[in-house]
Amino acid sequence: MFLKITLKSLLSRRGTVLMTVLTLAISLSLLFSIEHIRQQAKASFTSSVSGTDLIVGARSGQLNLLLYSIFRVGNPTNNISWDTYQHIKQHRQIEWTVPISLGDSHQGYRVIGTNGDYFRHFKYARQQPLSFSAGEPFGQLYDVVLGAEVARDLGYTLGDEIVISHGTGSTSFMHHDDKPFTVVGILQTTGTPVDKSLHVSLEAIEAIHLDWQHGAPMPGQSVSAEEAMQKDLTPEAITAFLVGMKSRVASFTVQRQINDYRNEPLTAILPGVALAELWQMLSSVENLLRIISALVLFAAFAGLVTTLLASMKEREREIAILRATGARPVTIFLLIQAEVIGITLAALVSALAFVQGILYFGQSYLAERFGIMISAQLLNRTTVDISLLILISAIVIACVPAITAYRKALNKGLAPRI
């Protein structure tokens, strides 16, 4: 009987109720979207590298090493000699290594010199390996593999020729145009800095710099692309290298041994620790999103209270008739609360369904068009907690119009309106 009265009351004001549900659903959709983006941004940030136990570079701070080796931001303080790399690579606790050589670019995108182990061992997110949307890893000296964003933004396809520029700036006046590269592979979107990188072999980095010295072409000397292929292209130095251990327990021991390496000043960092420290520095962004979420929630409830209080004025006669037919004040109070719970639940379900639909159908578009990897899994512990918080808050806020209706004088509602 009580629920029947509640339902009939809502249906009698279906227009106002529908607008209230719609307004609240829009605000809650915005709230769930912001919260989901906040969680996914953090997850995407921390999943830029996975399965790598150590990152080794020249002596510097761990954040600087992490930024230039993984996020392609900033520049290294120094290089690592090839002999040192080969020596550490032979450590009995190390299973695999991936060398990285930086210093060149193409239209603002970083060029990474590496070897075939990069495509076998580099992982992101939850141990996801790199995969190709087209082509294959580089096999010849002047082959290049493009990240998804590079290929998409610059419109490159397999077989296109590109010229690498010296330096890492977005604008360069020194190009290795005597040794063009051919696109042989395009990687799948990863949502990580890999999408913004071009990958060539370490030997290719050596080849394009054979006739260069101190960052500029040597006057009067020129080594053609064909002549370079006949040279010894063993690297003299690399920028950094990634390390995978046979046992993760040994990571701390090997890290300490590398940091104490006597032949060359080196720094070995644990990626997870460095990522956590870096995210702490960026926590202001996360806090900003939380503040926006709180403001959206406040605006939603403010609108709900305003709507309920406005409807109370229109329902004075309805409430008075209920009281005249025997309804107790507490019944009126519970009736208002039931209506608010119904409106809030309808808005919650609508908002969750809307955001889930957007994520389901827009996930592929965001990944392909913008390189943003957002999980379509909206329902999780945080979402449930927020939903419960919203429902409880709505019940508390509904006490304002419910108490107003509770105290409403019977004769006031039934008094003739002039």
Automatic annotation (TrEMBL):
It is a multi-pass membrane protein. It comes from the Bacteria. GO terms for cellular component: plasma membrane. Keywords: Cell membrane, Membrane, Transmembrane, Transmembrane helix. It is found in: Cell membrane. Residues 18-205 form the MacB-like periplasmic core domain. The chain crosses the membrane at residues 288-311, 332-361, 386-406. The keyword Cell membrane applies. It holds the Pfam family FtsX. This is Peptide ABC transporter permease. Residues 291-405 form the ABC3 transporter permease C-terminal domain. InterPro entries: ABC-4/HrtB_transporter, ABC3_permease_C, MacB_PCD.
